[in-house]
Amino acid sequence: MIYSYKFTVEDEVIAYEKTKEIYKAIDTLSEREKNILNGFYIEKKTIKDIAKENGRSYNNTRYEKDKMVKKLKKQLQKQIIDKK
């Protein structure tokens, strides 16, 4: 069974604030990290393809992706703590 839910103004404000936090965290990334983020998560490319396009090894690109994800998590957690 599918339940319908009407989004409230408060829901939209919370979503907007969360989106701003995510963009703020993404702004802390280097251009290379943003390229990997965009390629992997937005364009749905493989690590192999991203590595090839950037003239880097698969292992290096995979390591950079993992490091970038940890960096984003840390930045978002910091933003949560700073709001308290």
Automatic annotation (TrEMBL):
Start and end residues of each RNA polymerase sigma-70 region domain: 25-73
Domain of life: Bacteria
Classification via SUPFAM superfamilies: Sigma3 and sigma4 domains of RNA polymerase sigma factors
Coiled-coil ranges (or none): none
Annotated Gene3D superfamilies: 1.20.140.160
Protein name as it appears in the record: RNA polymerase sigma-70 region 4 domain-containing protein
Organism: Clostridium oceanicum
